[in-house]
Here is the input.
Amino acid sequence: MRDVSTFRLYLLRATYLLIVVGLGVGIWPAILDHPANLEHMRGVVRSLLGAVTLMALIGLRYPLQMLPLLLFELAWKAIWVLSFGLPLWSTGQFDAGTRETWNSCLFGLVLFPLVIPWGYVFANYVRRPGDRWTRASAAPPAPAMAMPAEPLASHRGA
Here is the structure.
């Protein structure tokens, strides 16, 4: 396993804090005080983003264990930009909401690759063997231990 520098750990914590504050300030008021007739998918998106802020809080304490959250953020932003953002941009169909998402995604696509410790990611998520897929086989029974002929106390001085 590759060691991650203290500087990189603080950089990761700063990124999690940016997610907590930057996303949390806007999303949690919208979660806690929403109209009763909120569109279904808007509620789903708010819930998902609220969960991301909560997971980022855990990342402040455990920055390496929460790396999958940053990989998730990087992945969804890349998918959105490539699949939705670029086609809309190329045809000039950006509205204010699309422009905001575009800017947020591009910021993440620049930031996350810079702060993610890629050596650690490759060592722990690519090279390291994965968990087993089947139930562990029962270990053969251990051989019975023979009792010593003399009490253990007699060997103290030796």
Observations:
- The helical segments are 6-32, 40-61, 67-90, 96-115, 118-127.
